[in-house]
Specification:
Layout lengths: L1 H24 L1 E7 L5 H16 L4 E6 L6 H12 L5 E5 L5 E3 L1 H8 L2 E4 L4 E3 L13 H22 L3 H9 L3 E3 H6 L5 E2 L3 H8 L3 E4 L2 E4 L6 E4 L4 H9 L2 H20 L5 H18 L5 H19 L5 H16 L12 H27 L13 E4 L6 E6 L2 E7 L14 E8 L2 E6 L2
Parallel strand pairs: 1-2, 1-11, 2-3, 3-5, 4-6, 5-8, 14-16
Antiparallel strand pairs: 6-7, 9-10, 12-13, 12-15, 13-14, 15-16
Helix pairs in contact: 2-3, 3-4, 5-6, 10-11, 12-13, 12-14, 13-14
């Protein structure tokens, strides 16, 4: 009996020490993706998988709503999900969401695929990066590669491989109730709580073996992206990246035109760096970048060497075409807004024609201060100029020298008006006022 009583405190300590672990096993992490699939999405999903494994979460739910995305990023995400050391559930939600194109591939790679009511999946036919049509050989290669990828994932996860192939080859798309009927997905759930209840007890295959999901009543922990990741998500938007590049070019031009201004150079430099970072995550056509740079050069030349509008027209055309060509993809979610392109081209042209032009015209304007600014003023002789003497101009007494016109007498009487025509070594050169 005494030995039993001694054992009780030790048992209590072990139970208390075990409580956090038990709590962790009843935790489900949730990551929300509501944008196109880009390298930033890869970073977020890989980070979420690692965090969930480290913290001993029961599973990771990726709540997905995407129009599609980049092929390279999609393959990286698929590889992450297929090799994850914990169950990953892709949940297409909320109502109105879709798992289109890249989203369909990601859903097929998950251990459990789920959809909310009023959602859709499919339309996964690959498109050519430049927006045009691929030749038949290249189209066949790209399509077959995508089909092989999704069929492999379908077989591994026990889903409908034939429908997945149709989604790739014919861009078919279906709502959630058809997806469940055709075994494209595993579950239809109205919300996260219902989802975790429905998948409780389901067996999934992990690299280290089979695991039974224990998700009913589990604590839901939402994974929040940090400020840096949120900023990166914003700037990889094609329209934002385009605006950043334009601001960067204008800022640097203004800094080089007005050395020491500092602020335009700082803003321009930061904007260009962010734009080039975004370009790494986007399918950029560098012919478009070169056309935009050519447009800037033409605008500058128009200001410095007026061509009666020819250079300006060339600059507008080059910038418009470069902006249209900048993103090397026909996917709608990777296009720059046409209204933004038109507004930016117009604003840039106006900036060079009016703002920069006004500055250059001011530089060429006759000086109004200092000795140079005295040229053209009217002075009054305070003593005879024959040909030198003193004059009063702008309230000051100056030494002056008369420069008479041919045939005129080389003398000016006191109180007679003269006009300043030049300045030589602190001596005003004047002529008789007519």
């Amino acid at each position: 009996m005494r030995n039993f009583l001694c054992f009780l405190p030790i048992s209590a300590i072990l139970i208390v020490a075990r409580l956090p672990v038990l709590a962790q096993e009843r935790t489900v992490h949730v990551l929300t993706i509501e944008s196109a699939i880009t390298p930033i999405t890869v970073k977020l999903i890989q980070g979420a998988v690692e965090k969930s494994v480290e913290e001993g979460a029961q599973a990771l739910v990726i709540q997905l709503n995407t129009p599609g995305g980049l092929v390279a990023s999609t393959w990286k995400i698929n590889s992450t999900l297929l090799n994850a050391d914990l169950p990953v559930i892709v949940y297409v939600a909320p109502s109105g969401a879709r798992a289109a194109s890249a989203g369909m591939f990601i859903t097929y790679a998950a251990h459990v695929a789920a959809m909310a009511s009023g959602t859709s999946i499919g339309a996964a036919h690959p498109v050519e990066g430049g927006g045009g049509k691929m030749d038949s050989t290249m189209s066949e290669k790209v399509t077959n590669d995508a089909v092989a990828n999704v069929r492999s994932a379908a077989v591994k996860r026990g889903r409908n491989a034939d429908w997945a192939e149709q989604a790739v080859r014919k861009s078919v798309s279906i709502p959630e109730y058809e997806a469940l009927k055709l075994k494209v997905i595993d579950v239809v759930a109205e919300n996260l709580s219902q989802l975790l209840e429905k998948i409780d007890g389901r067996k999934v295959q992990l690299p280290l073996g089979e695991r039974v999901l224990k998700t009913k009543g589990a604590e839901i922990v939402h994974i929040k992206s940090n400020v840096f990741d949120r900023i990166l998500e914003v700037i990889v938007d094609p329209t934002i990246a385009y605006i950043l590049m334009t601001i960067g070019l204008l800022g640097l031009y203004f800094e080089f035109s007005n050395p020491g201004a500092i602020l335009p150079g700082v803003i321009g430099g930061i904007s260009l760096i962010l734009a080039f970072f975004a370009f790494q995550a986007l399918p950029i056509n560098y012919a478009g970048v070169l056309l935009i740079l050519l447009a800037m050069i033409l605008f500058i030349l128009e200001v410095k060497f007026p061509s009666h509008g020819i250079l300006t027209i060339g600059g507008v055309v080059a910038m418009f075409l470069g902006s249209i060509m900048l993103i090397n993809s026909s996917a709608p979610y990777l296009r720059i807004s046409l209204s933004v392109i038109i507004s930016t081209v117009a604003a840039t042209a106006a900036f060079f024609l009016f703002a920069v032009g006004a500055g250059l015209r001011a530089q060429r304007r006759q000086a109004t201060t200092g000795m140079e600014g005295m040229v053209g003023l009217v002075a009054v002789a305070t003593e005879p100029l024959a040909p030198e003497g003193l004059v009063k101009v702008a309230g000051e007494i100056w030494k002056a020298r008369l420069a008479p016109a041919p045939g005129e007498a080389e003398k000016v009487n006191p109180n007679e008006k003269v006009k300043v025509v030049g300045v030589e070594n602190l001596t005003l050169v004047v002529s008789k006022e007519k």
